[in-house]
Structures are given as C-alpha cells and as structure tokens.
Records
---
Amino acid sequence: MLLNLVLWVLFGALAGWIAGQLMGSRNGLVVNVILGVVGAIVGGFIASLIGFNYAEGFNLVSLLIAIAGACLVIWLARMVRR
C-alpha cells in the first residue's frame, strides 16, 4: 500500500515536471509534484466523463492523461493568479 502511494506520487511528479516544461512553468519541484498529482486526478476524471476507456495502472496513456490534466491545472492556476 505504501509502495503504491509512493509510485503514484512519483508518477504525478513526472507528469507535473513534463507539464511544467510544456507550459513554461517556473514552479519548483514540490509545486510540480502537487500539480502533477492533482492533474492526474483531474485528467482521469475528465477522461472518464467523456467516456475514454483506458487501462488503469502505469502506462503511456495514463501518463498522457496525467500530463494533460496537469497542463489544465497549471493554466487554471495562472488564470487565478491574474
């Protein structure tokens, strides 16, 4: 259970870092980890709402969904800061 949680945080950190690079974010590592985890949740939720069926677990599709969600979260955070 603890190992699973650590793996998901690392997965979210990777997604957050990639999204930060794509979006030109100047956030630090901790913020990118948080945005990546939140983005993975948001991305998965939106994907399920539109009926996108993907295999659960660590795979390329899950990573792309997490990155898209993290990009959305970064964009929303920018809009709130303005």
---
Amino acid sequence: MQSLVEAYNNTSYRVELPNEVVTLRPGNHCPALNSFLATGGWNSAAVITAFNPRSTVTSHEENVAANASLLAAAQDRGYEVHFGAGVGDDPKWGPEESFLLCGIALPEALALAVQFEQNAIAFHAVNLKTGIELTEILAAG
C-alpha cells in the first residue's frame, strides 16, 4: 500500500472556478489557477477538506457535517471559497469534497487543517512577479 504522502501526491485536486474547472496536481503547472489568483490579487491558495479525519474512513453524514463546519470557518475568516474534490489515483479511496481557499497564508491553512484533523493540505503558491508556481502537499500535524 502507498504511504499517505504518496497517496496525497497521487491525487488530482479539482476545483470549480467561476468559468472553468481546474485540476491541481502536485508538481504540475496550473496556468488557469495562476491567472485566476492574479486577477483576485492573491498569490496563494490551499485545498482543504474535513473529510475522513486523520485518514480514517468516516460516514458520509459525518464528513458532510465536518465540511460544512470547515466552510463556515473559512467564510468567517473572509476567504473566497470554491468547491472542489480530491480524487486519488487509488480506487480504494473515493473522492473527497474539498474547498479552495483563495489568498490563505500557509500558517493559517495548516492551522485549519489541524483544527479539522487533516494530515495534509495541497498548497499552491505563485510568485506574481516571476510567475514561478508550486503546488505541494504539506503535512499539517
């Protein structure tokens, strides 16, 4: 079985932006997301879920309730939020509903992940001057 880090790195993070669906993949470029972030004046975003805390399979009802709490927490902090899903290459794990939080700084993203008992997040950062981007998986706890 793959390690958790391998599983997270082998996941496509699909996000519903206003005019298109983009897919983030660790180590790959995502010009459409970069453009969207630049238009909003942001240089970072994070994909976070509250599904399956600590990678323990949880009921759909519990996952939906936890994600609703995460959404409320993100909105209370003023982040623009877009819906998405993490879809792993491993068919044993079903898609996990998630959110893209625009403009969130790494420490705040990791704090939310810890609050919602997530092992990791997908964090996307782009240098608006150079255009250099990076999507990576970062351990949260």
---
Amino acid sequence: MSSQVLVPGGGRRPAPTLAMKVEPDAAAFAVFESELAPGAPGPAPHRHLADDEAFYVLDGSVAFLLDGEVTTCGPGSCVLVPRGAAHGFSNPST
C-alpha cells in the first residue's frame, strides 16, 4: 500500500453520485463517498460475504435496514454492518 492524498471531489467516479476514495486493490479495505438524492430508494437488501461495511453520515439522513429493523440516522451517525448481515439503505428525506 502506498500513501495517498485526495483533494475534495477527488477519486474515481464509477457513477455520478459515487466517488472511490480508496480502491479495494490498493489496501485491505475500500473507502467511497456516495450521495443519495432526496427520496432515493438505495439498493435492495443485500449481503457482503467477504467484507464488513461501515457507513458515516455527513449530511441529511439515511435510513438503514439492519437485522430486519429500520433506523434513521442523521449527521455524525456511524453504522457497522458485519459481513454476512442483510442490509439496505435509503434517503427518506425530501
């Protein structure tokens, strides 16, 4: 792994609302920044069998489906999803 510095807005953009900040082949983990438009449904519930996943909410609110329960999280919230756990997320705000 080599050192890396990204300026705001930096990183590879595989989609208009997704920026890869640390690529999975560059480290033992990946970091990405994602923007969910108001009312965005997000991905359908799914599982990652090989990796844990963490989310940090910067602005607005994100509804996380974890263990069959929905929790709406605001700025400063951090959510950890262990590998194998079914989860989904959406932006319920207007």
---
Amino acid sequence: MHNIKLVLTGLAASALLTTSAIAQKVKSAGVPAAVKEALAKKYPGAADVNWEKEKGNFEANWGGKSKEDNSVVFTPDGNFVEQVVAIPVNTLPPGVAAYVKAHYPGTKITEAGKVTDAMGKTSYEAEVKGKDLVFNEKGEFVKID
C-alpha cells in the first residue's frame, strides 16, 4: 500500500510539472504593469493583444487572422526575451523541410516563425503535429520546444 501511495504522489507531482509548462491564457488585468509598459514601448502598434503565461514569462500575441502573427515574450519585470514573427512555410531555411521529411514522413509543417532573441540571434520554429521544432539560422535542428 505504501508503494502505491508513493507512485500516486509521484504521478501527481509529474502532472503538476507538466501542466505548468503549458501556456495559460491570461487576462490583461493579470499581466504586470512592467510587461504592458515594455510592450507598449517596444511595439507601439500592437493592438488587440492576447496574453499567455508560459514558463513564468508573459507572451503577447497579436496580428493576422489568427491574432498570432506577432508573438513577443517578456519576463515578469518587463525584460524582452524574444519575438516570433509568422512567416510563410516556404521561406524557412532548406534544412528545415529536409529534417521534417526525414523525421516526420508524410507530415506537413502547419506554421512557421522567425525568432529573434534579446541578443539579436535568429532561429526558426516549425510547427509539426502540434510541436514546435526549433532550428538555427542555417536550418539545422536544435530542439523541440
């Protein structure tokens, strides 16, 4: 019986950790003022913004039909982390399509984005089967995000 309790406790802890990594919708009122001010200063044209909280940071999404053509992440104190701009799938570096074809045969890239971090480094995201695959600027696979 003691072993069952340990297993159940472990499963519950694992579930909590897993769900905390998933993005959660946040109302504007739940976004720190420093984050809203940083967004307004860096992206004054951002309108009709939807907010999410993921990995402790705040993500602002706006633009396009999906209202996610632009995505910007800030720390809770308003420091810029990264920007993701939606791009046409056919503009990804050639290595991305080759990787997806080899590792996810018969699957299409459903969304693509160009990522620029706070240091100005560029990478790319390709959404495949609900996962964000991250590639460097040369189109070489880096990780699943």
